[in-house]
Amino acid sequence: MSNNYTVKPVYKAIQVLLCLAEADQPLRLSEICRRVGLPKTTVFRYLYTLQVCGLVAHDPERDLYQPGLRLWELGQATREQIDTRAAAVSHMEALRDRFNETVNLGILAGHEVVYLEIVESRHSLRMLAALGGRDPLYSTALGKALLAFLPEEHWAAHLPPTLIPRTLRTLTTMEALKRDLIETRARGFSVDRGENEEGACCIGAPIFDQRGRVVAAVSLSAPDSRIGPALEQEMADAIKQTATEISLRLGYHPNHANSR
């Protein structure tokens, strides 16, 4: 632990958490202290804090500690992201090869979309999204595809109080955005025509899991100079088909569409 940027108490607390996660049974405080080589008072404070966060569970009758439910939930969420990416990559590559434009995979994170995977166009002129980067939901095709297929009563929870313009074309009123989301849901794909990045056009579609929940979105992005009306429709049909193929790999069944 030689990095000057390492926060030592956080590092030590994580060692305590890893100790519990790697153990094959619940542990007493004394055993945790022995394994991590830290004083009992220090370890107790870390355990108490981790317990408040739901990452550690304590059985007061037996005075034993074990990983908490929240840690399991985080593991499940991470696994779902890995599964989604694995299911999507080959389809994204096929879509990129067909149009030679960038294909993006995004997931919902609060008010933003996070780029989980990007398959780059081979053109020298490409869009600016970066793997692991974030953009607002309301200004991107990925974000609008995610929002539109959530229950309408959940939309407000994923939008900031003010829709700050990213470009002159960004939708900045709730009325305009709501109309756009309703249209997106009706036609099965979203469109961002320069709303997030000047001169860019992006078309997105939702990805569903085995329970029929929207868990991700996939999009094609390109400079708008390379996309005319006919090609835009062809891309929209292709992105919808790609999203369906990825959804099917995640266990989605078309009958779920009737329950959304």
Order of helices and strands: HHHEEHEEEHHEEEH
Shape: elongated
Fraction of residues in β-strands = 15-25%
Overall mean pLDDT: 90
How would you characterize the overall build of this protein?
With 260 residues, this protein is an alpha+beta fold. 42% of the residues lie in helices and 19% in strands. It contains seven helices and eight strands; from the N terminus they run αααββαβββααβββα. It has helices at 8-22, 29-36, 40-52, 69-99, 141-148, 174-187, 229-249; strands at 56-59, 64-67, 102-109, 112-119, 134-136, 190-193, 200-208, 214-223. The strands form two sheets. A six-stranded antiparallel sheet has the order 5-4-3-8-7-6, with helices on both faces. Strands 1-2 form a two-stranded antiparallel sheet. Strand 6 and strand 7 form a beta hairpin. Helix 1 crosses helix 3 (40-52). The chain starts with 7 loop residues before the first helix and ends in an 11-residue tail after the last helix. The model has no long low-confidence stretch (mean pLDDT 90).
